[in-house]
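Troubleshooting log. The previous run stalled partway through. Resubmitting the same two chains, unchanged.
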Amino acid sequence: MIRLFDGAVDQLTRGLAFASRRHALVTENVANLATPGYRAKDLAFDDQLKPGVVGATDDGPALPPLGRFERRPRVVLAQDGTPRGDGNDVNLDRQMARLSQNALYHNTLVQVLVGQFNSMKQAISGRV
Amino acid sequence: MDLFRALDVSASGLSAQRTRMEVVTENLANAESPVTTSGKVYRRKIPVLQAVEGGPSFSSVLGGASNARGGVRVSQVVESPEAPRRVYQPGHPLAGPDGFLSLPNVNPLVEMVDMLMTTRAYEANATAFQATKSMGAKLLEILK
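Second attempt completed without errors. Output:
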């Protein structure tokens, strides 16, 4: 039996949650482009994934199953550049790049998720 | 819902930049006004932007915080403490006994730069808003 959904949908959903949280932070940075003393924020990503990747085996999912990611990703300072004279360190170019990058990541995840559900639909309908 | 929060944050950014633009245009319009309705010389106005802290936590929403979703707002508009420009115009009805007239401490060059910065910031917020919208539209494809 083909295991279509061995955690894939869960992991995609988690990825989507991460992408939308990160998107909210980027929009906050853009909104505070001219606020004195504001420091750009970002979500820590790498060190959240690392334990999952290290623990991956050939016959297991690369990411830990549901429940292992219960800790929400940390909000950290983006530190994109040195603060300007007013103490604000939002780098608009980087933020806009991050915005596009994150939107693309988000849309890719959605596309894969749609593919998963289409497979499920096909399996249910019984047609080849 | 982080995407809805992102829309709110972008909207707060758009609103703050619009207020900033209003202040800049007011300064420019009054660059040569020696007197306001209060009888004093017009002083350059400076909008003070303030980051609104606070995620969508339950208590902050329940506590009725005015803007619990984060973003930015114009907390106050202050008047510039710089001294007014002094121009020698002895014939002017508002000139002092020494013949000098006090004109607003508005530097049109500074205002034009502020205006450019405000425009770009507004555009950046609008772009972020569009990106959020497209992400939301993409999410709806799951339902198809």
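Takeaways: The longest strand of chain A covers residues 41-43. The longest helix of chain A spans residues 92-125.
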